[in-house]
Amino acid sequence: MAQERPHLNVVGSVNLDFVARVERLPRPGETVGGAALDRIPGGKGANQAVAAARLGASVRLAGAVGDDEFAEEALAGLRQAGVDLDVERGGATGVALILVESGGENQIVVVPGANAGWAPRGLPGPVLCQLEIPLENVVEAAEQADFFCLNAAPARPIPASLLDRCDLVVVNRYELEALPAEPRLTALTLGPEGAVLLEQGREVARATPPRVVTVDGTAAGDAFTACLVVSHLERRDWEEALRRACAAGALAASRPGAQPSLPTAAEVDAVLAA
User: Is 222 an annotated catalytic residue?
Assistant: First the structure.
């Protein structure tokens, strides 16, 4: 059945990821050698915008980059995916320092740069947002949206009044614990176990991901979140949307890098049909 092509505003961070692949993650105070380094466009906002575009949505990203040599490199994946850019420029482009070990586990440190100093504007329609940008920007985006999804990651304190404006909140276990109250509708990701959808804390849907070999889990949550929102905007029921989101997250985890790992709608269809 053909689905209508939804429009989605994504408000969030744009980074350049410096990804070091190591055999194992270092312990505190330890130096681990033998790493291979990649530079890959990233940032949770940019990742989710690229993911939504590859899944068939018409996407506009509101964000910020610096006026430095990293800016165009950070925007390259968005341009390639056909995302409409509303990007302020100034200062330094945000960067993420990422360590990925051979089993796919990672450690991430984010230097926000330009992501910390801008304001969203003109956001009619559905909005998807994360917490790698100033909280006041998240609140402003929520106030402008007619459907607002918050991926409450990374975990940080937020006011209960912001949760009241959320139509959907996507979290993992740790991020759920950081919330000030129970959201009206929560998608709780459970890693290899899949995800559950909770309405006022009561389970209303559950899905498990297809089995994959985990290579790099950096953007798995971004793929999941984008696919869940796009599937909902395509008017799929929540059970189907959750199943598709789990498949998208698994596919992303089975590939290296953030944006390069994000699947298309056809790839999600294929793995669900297998």
Answer: yes
Residues 6 or more apart whose CB falls under 8 angstroms from that of 7 comprise 57, 58, 59, 60, 125, 126, 233
Measure the CA–CA gap between 4 and 165, rounded to whole angstroms.
26
Annotated catalytic residue within 86, 146, 222, 269: 222
Q: What are 160's two structure tokens?
A: 């209960």
- From the number of C-beta atoms within 10 Å of its C-beta (0-12, 13-18, 19+), residue 33 rates as exposed
Please tell me whether the overall predicted TM-score, pTM, comes out greater than 0.70 for this model: yes
Would you say 153 and 174 are in contact if contact means Cβ atoms under 8 Å apart?
A: no
Backbone torsions φ then ψ of 261, nearest 5 degrees: -85, -10
Residue 233's Cβ-count burial label (10 Å; 0-12, 13-18, 19+) is buried
Residue by residue, pLDDT tens for the chain (274 residues) are: 456 799 999 999 999 999 999 999 999 999 999 899 999 999 999 999 999 999 999 999 999 999 999 999 999 999 999 999 999 999 999 999 999 898 888 898 989 999 998 888 888 899 999 999 999 999 999 999 999 999 999 999 999 999 999 999 999 999 999 999 999 999 999 988 999 999 999 999 999 999 999 888 889 999 999 999 999 999 999 999 999 999 999 999 999 888 999 999 999 999 999 8
Residue of 153, 217, 191, 154 whose CA lies nearest to 21: 217
- Tokens representing 36 are 């291979």
